[in-house]
Amino acid sequence: xxxxxxxxxxxxxxxxxxxxxxxxxxxxxxxxxxxxxxxxxxxxxxxxxxxxxxxxxxxxxxxxxxxxxxxxxxxxxxxxxxxxxxxxxxxxxxxxxxxxxxxxxxxxxxxxxxxxxxxxxxxxxxxxxxxxxxxxxxxxxxxxxxxxxxxxxxxxxxxxxxxxxxxxxxxxxxxx
Amino acid sequence: xxxxxxxxxxxxxxxxxxxxxxxxxxxxxxxxxxxxxxxxxxxxxxxxxxxxxxxxxxxxxxxxxxxxxxxxxxxxxxxxxxxxxxxxxxxxxxxxxxxxxxxxxxxxxxxxxxxxxxxxxxxxxxxxxxxxxxxxxxxxxxxxxxxxxxxxxxxxxxxxxxxxxxxxxxxxxxxxxxxxxxxxxxxxxxxxxxxxxxxxxxxxxxxxxxxxxxxxxxxxxxxxxxxxxxxxxxxxxxxxxxxxxxxxxxxxxxxxxxxxxxxxxxxxxxxxxxxxxxxxxxxxxxxx
Lengths: 176, 288
What we know:
heterodimer, A: Arp2/3 complex 21 kDa subunit ARPC3, 8 helices, B: Thrombin, subunit H, 4 helices
């Protein structure tokens, strides 16, 4: 990974956390909408599972350490999210990718609830996570429609392009 | 659908195992406490800066639904009403314990607490995670872990972590958290367990206690509770008695966890030195 990509990844993570805590959370207290998760999904959909899982793990661990729940819960969840979105990457439209990102993020929110339920031994948390999966997916979809094109534009720019992106210029030419 | 290469499969497995190790470490001991504290401090400072930029715009947008209506006036009146109810609750408590209060020379001593105003900078994620808010005041202003936070009328929560400039409050309504409470009408004590935005579930210590709809609950002395006593927790909205005779009551919260903005940290408790004058036998000098 180039230094520029690493700096861009850290900047994206911190920006996502700040916007999540100060803007999104106050408006979505009752629904688990997560901007950092959507960014992880968008990165994986462009750059594939390897970039997705490493970005997801790092962002998740940082979010865990900045919160009061046990460290590792979001790292585990967003690593899985990165892998899932990476393997689901196809040459889709922005709306198609936003839909995939929203579904995967909703599944990740439910999974995180399951892990927390197991960790705390609280069945109510599990039930709440399952119940809130659909509204969380709708909220994530609204975010993904905005985030996916921005992430795509950044990661396809000359400076931030991956050495082995999920879809190379050759793929584009063949499918085009 | 793409397939993972062998290296990618190995890497994902290693990362998952690493995450599980972190969970085990954090659950099992205090080895990650410094890391938590450091990251929280950095993020807290960044939240503070971001809120200074985006906060006014956010508060403006949050106020749009009530613009042009009487909603703001209604909210102000509700708040005033809650404060008056809190005074009535305090008066009721005073009546029931008038004899003891007179003997201990502690009438109406609640005003002796120092309350530090603090603005909510950020909210925690909820949804299975801890229900927390981040405040813009920290240890530099006298905030200490364990101190009680109020909105002026009722209980908000207690300080969970405090850095120099920011602090994190665990809300009383946090699912899984318990608050020691007292029923003002009967004097019964028990535990109110948080249920998020739904309020609390109150279980009195005495299973035969006669709890009624409309009973007011205030923070009280149960177990190792660290809350300041006498703060309004909520009002009983329904009561259910199970076949084994256990009474459980649903409690509507006195403060809304989802609309907190300006709160007050009561600078007593935790590691702080109590500013309250100790009660001394008559004829002797009171000491702090």
